[in-house]
What we know:
Elements: H1 2-12, E1 33-37, E2 40-45, H2 47-52, H3 56-70
Antiparallel strand pairs: 1-2
Amino acid sequence: EKVVQNALDNMMKNHTTLVIAHRLNTIINADKIVVMDKGKIIEMGTHDQLLKNDSLYKKLYSIQYANMENS
């Protein structure tokens, strides 16, 4: 997974890239993250900005990383 992430990071440098991801570690370093729910944009910001709010992104991040730590 780390090799794939490094390859993606290198390919995206200095390029506009649209990434659709279920694994949040794929987009943590993105300049802007757009969160959609049921086809609608519900929040937008950087990883840090989205974690500051009680947002869907924060909930998904917490669930995903709790599951990774328990694996």
